[in-house]
C-alpha cells in the first residue's frame, strides 16, 4: 500500500470586482464575484512545499482586476473564457482552469421618470451565474441563475402519493407553490449570444412557472426545463434545484375561524428539495463541463 | 442593597405570515415577518415562576394568524396598530405592546407582457418595515425600510478632512458612493395614508441619493432626510443608518496599467457607518416611539 | 417650522484585528472585531459637506491598529477605554465616543496531551463583548456575551398561563429549555479586574441555568441575573435577551409510536423572546452607558 | 432531436432532530440536521404529474423522526445507513438513496466542577458530518467535518512562487496560517467503529496542522491527509477543502511604527481556496460514494 495524491485544484475565491464603463455622464456597471481555480502539475507543492509552479492566488486575483481594465468585462461568459484561457495557455504546467462568476444586477434609479445616468439601486430577481471550464484546448460554459424566488398562490396540487406507514400528509388540490430556483444550463458551444440567451432562458423559466398548472413540483421543474430547451437550441442541457418552500395553511379551527386558503405560515426548515435534469438526446458530450460544479 | 427587577418585555418573534386575498383569479399577497412584545405586570413570572399573567408567546402567534384571517392585513401599520391595541386593551395587566413588522415585496410575473394574476417573483429594492408602540392609550408609529442598496459611480468626493498622526487616506474628488440604507421615520400621528406615504418617502430617498452631488456621505444622508421632511408633512422625524460600502480603486500600476476610475474592489469589512437624524423643530414629542428600537 | 439636524454618530465598524504577542515559541492571540463611533460638532459635514472636523473613519481604523501595536490589547475593556479616551481627548470638537468590541476565543491545540505554543482552534461557547462609552470626562463600560447556546433536556415546565380565545398551547411539566443567551452587564466603575469578572459572570450564568428548576424562561432569566449580582459587586445591572429556542415533541401517534420526551423537532422561527433587567437599588446612575446599545 | 429526462433526485432537506436518551437524571443528547434524497423511477411525476411513486418528502421526514424513536440514533453513520436501506428496500421503485447528516456537539455544563446530567452548552470545534449513499445492494459512507477553524501564528512560509506579469505579492518566511477545514473521508467498508474513527481523524488533523512547518497551505493539506491515512486503515481516501483565511500584516510605517508580525488584519474576501485528495493506491473503488457530494 502506498499513499498517493489525487484530484486537486486551487485558486482565489470571491474576488469582488466592480467595473465601471463611462460614456460621459452615462455609466455602465458590472458587479461581479469571480472565483478562479487551476489544475495541473501541482504535486511538488503538496508533497514538498515547492512553490515553483504555484501561480499565487494573489496573482490570480490581480489578473482578474487587470483583465477587467485591459479588456473590459463584457458578458460574464466572455470574461470567464478569457481568464480561463489565459491561465491554461500562459502557464505550461496548468492543464485546466475553472472560472466561476456571479453577477449582481443594478437598476438605474428613476428621477422624475427618467433613468439616471450613474445612480443605481441593487436589482432583485436572482443572480446570474456562469461556470467556465477549460481543459487543454477544450472549453465548456455552464451558465445559470440562483435565488430566483417565485410563488404561485393557486394552481398547484399534490395528490395521489403513496400512503404508507409513515405517511400523515393530507392531499391537497389547492396549495401555495413557492421555490427559489437554482438553474444551470450547459451550452453546446462557446459561440453564443450570451446576453440574449440569458435573458430568454430567465424569461421562459418565469413564464413557465407561472402558467403551468402544477400537480407536483417535479412536474413544474420538468416543464420549465423543457420549455427552455424547446426555445433555445444553444442550450444542450439544463439542471435545476428547487427547494419546496412550504407554506402551511394555519389551522384556525380551535379559534372558531375558517381558513379558506387565506392565512399561511411560511416555514424555513425542513423543505422538500427537488432536483432534475432536462436534456436533448443529441446533446454534445458534456466532457468536463460539470466537473466540480455542485450538483446531483 | 437589594436586588430588583427592572425593564423587561417578552413576546413572539418572527411570525412568518403570508396572507392571500382572492378576487377570482387575481390574488393579492402580503408576506410579513411579525414580532410582538408585551410590557406590564410580569414580575410574578420572573420572581416566582407564576405564569397567571403570562399571555403565552404561542397565544400571541395565534393572534397574529387569527387577526390576519378576521381583519385582513391591509397596510402593515394598520395591522400593527390593531394587534398592539388588542394586547393592551384586552389584558388589564398589559400596559404596553410593541409590534414590529417586515414586509417582503412581490412583483407579478409578466406572461406575454401581461401581469399574471397569482404568480409572483420576489421583489428587490429593500424591505418595508414598521414598529408600532402602544403605551396605555397612546400609540406611535415608526415606519421604515432596510437593505435599500444604492450606488453612484461618480458625483461623490471626500476631501478636506483632518490630517492627523494616524491619517493615511488620500483625498478624492471622484469616488464610488454606495450604501445600504436603513431608515426609520416617525409619524406625527396615526392618521396617515400609509401606503402613499411609504411609496413617496422611498422614492424621495432614491431620487435624493441620485441627484445630490456628495461631498461626504454625511451630507447625502442629511439631504435625503431633509427632502423627505420637506415633502411629507406627516413625517415628524427620520433617522438613517448608512454603512459606507467602500469601493476601492485597484492599484494596477505594478502591472503598468492605468485605472481611471474603472476597476474597483468592493470591500466587505470594515465599513464606515454614518448615522443621523433629521427632524422638525415643531415635531410632536416622541414619547415612547423609539423605545427598544435599535438606534443611536 | 424649520428642519433641524438631530442625534448622530459616525465611525468605522467591524475593524478585524488579530494581535499576536510572542514569548519565544509561546504566543498569545487576541482576535477582535472593533467598531468605533464619534459624537460632537459634526453639523458642517451634514449641512454643507465641510469635512474639516470629520476624523475620517479610515483614520479611526488606523488608530485601532496603531494602538494595538503601541499598547497591546490587554482586556477588551481596557482597549476600548484607551481608544475612546483618545478620540475625545485629542479632538476638541469630539465630545463623545463609543467603542464596541467582540472577542473571538481560541483554544490551544493539544499535541500529545500538551498545549501547543502557537497553534489554535476557534473556541465555542459564545463571544465576549464590551461597549465602552465616553462622554466628556465620564466613561461607562457595559460588557457582555452573545451566542452562549444552552439547553436543558428536563427540569423545565410551562403551566398556569391564561387560557384565552387564541390559546391552544398545552401545558407541560417537562420540556426542553434552550436559548442563546445575549447578556450585557453594566459596571459600576471602570476600576475592575475585567478578565476575572468576565470569567465569573459567564460561569455563574451557566451554572444558574443548569441548576434552576424552571417554571418559565422568565424565571430562569431573572435567577441567572440575580446570581450574578449576588456574587459580583462590581456589576451594577445586567440585561439579558433570551430567545426561547423551541423544541417541539414530535407527535408519533399517527404511526402507533410513543414519544416519552425522546424525539424533538428543533424549530427555527418563530421563537419566544424574553428580555429582562436585574439591577441593584443602589446602583450608580446609568448615565449614557446604554446609549445606542440595542436593548429594550 | 427529442427532449429527455435525465439525472434527478428528491427528498426532504434539513430535518432538525434532537433525540434525548434518559438514564435517570443523566441524559444523552443527539442534535442532528438530516437530509434524505431518493433516486429511482420518478419519470411519471416529472412528465405527467403522476405521484403514485412519489414517497412524499413529508413521509421521509416522518420516517426520520419515527426511526429515531424506534431505533435511537447511535452514531450518525449507523442512522444514515438504516434510513437509506429502508428507502431502497421498502419501495421497489426506489433504486438509490442518500442520507446527509450534520451533528452539532454539546458539552455538559460544569457545576461546582462536576458535569451536569442534563444541562448542556453548544460545543465549538466544528461540525461532524456524514453522507451515506445506497445504490441497490451497495452502500458507501463518506464522513467528515466542517468549520474546524484553526490558526498558526508562526511556522508558515510562502516563497518561491512564480513572479509573472501580474504578480505583486511579497515572499514571506513568517506568516499567520489560518483556515476553516472541511474534510470528507471515504470509508473502505461499512464495518467501522464510527465514533472511534471520527475522534481519531479529527485529532490527527488538528495535531498535524499544529506540528507541520508549512511552506504552503497545499503542503499542510497533504500532510494532514497523509497522517490520517497512515493511522486509520479504515479510511480509503480523504478530500479536504481549505480556504486560506488571509491575515495581512498591517503597514504601520506611515505612522512611524514597526510591526514585527504583531498586528494583523483578518480579511473576509477574497480568499485562497486549496482543495486536494489523499488516497491509497489499493483503495476499493469509490463507486457512487461521491455522487452528488459537493467537491472538486
Keywords summarizing the entry:
homotetramer; about 300 residues; Urate Oxidase; 2 domains; eight-stranded antiparallel β-sheet; two-stranded antiparallel sheet; 5 helices; globular
What would you say this structure looks like, in words?
4 copies of one chain form a homotetramer. Chain A has 2 domains: 8-136, Urate Oxidase (Roll); 145-296, Urate Oxidase (Roll), CATH 3.10.270.10. The first copy, chain A, has an 8-stranded antiparallel β-sheet. A two-stranded antiparallel ribbon of chain A has the order 4-5. In chain A, strands 10-11 form a two-stranded antiparallel sheet. Chain A is built from 5 helices and 12 strands. Chain A has 296 residues and is α+β, with helices and mostly antiparallel strands. Chain A is 23% helix and 42% strand. The two termini of chain A are 32 Å apart. The longest helix of chain A is centred in the last third of the chain and has 18 residues, at 194-211. Chains in contact: A-B, A-C, A-D, B-C, B-D, C-D. Chains A and D meet through strand 1, helix 1, helix 2, helix 5 and strand 9 of A and strand 1, helix 1, helix 2, helix 5 and strand 9 of D. Strand 7 (138-152) of chain C pairs antiparallel with strand 5 of chain D.
